[in-house]
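Have a close read of this protein, sequence plus structure tokens, and explain what the tokens say about the fold. Thanks in advance:
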Amino acid sequence: MTIEDVCKNENIDFTGIPSSYYLLGLISAFENRFQAMADSTMNEISWKQFFAIICINMCKEPPTLKELSDILGSSHQNVKQILLKLEKKKFIEFQTDESDKRKQRIVLTDHCREFCEKNDEMSMILMEKMFEGIPEKDIVTTIQTITKIEKNLRGIVS
């Protein structure tokens, strides 16, 4: 199967485009579409802010700015701007690390937890619709592929 077989579009000619190039473009376009949909769905915060909250919540202990920047794959400056907006909206607090007073840890507030609980059902419905008809094995293969690409990217950037 070729890219032309998979990607029938009257407005764009994919002839001769390597599948790796097409995949990178597809991921970028998907991210833009997903962000627009998520931004329009959540009233109080943006998708990028919500993704930061998800990542903070998954950490075993409240992360530092550097740790969260690494997890999000974004610059220190960009993550700081996201966090300042979340702090202003009372979704996060910065707390001094007990063992190293130079470090600030990012902590989710009760207001943030209430927001997440309130939006949990809507998030689950959106995820179900988005992944409808896609077998679990295909999702796992996609995760494995993107993980390998990211590992290669880190080798190039480092």
User: Anything to note?
Assistant: Helices lie at 3-6, 19-41, 47-58, 65-72, 76-88, 110-130, 136-157. The longest helix spans residues 19-41. The mean pLDDT is 90.
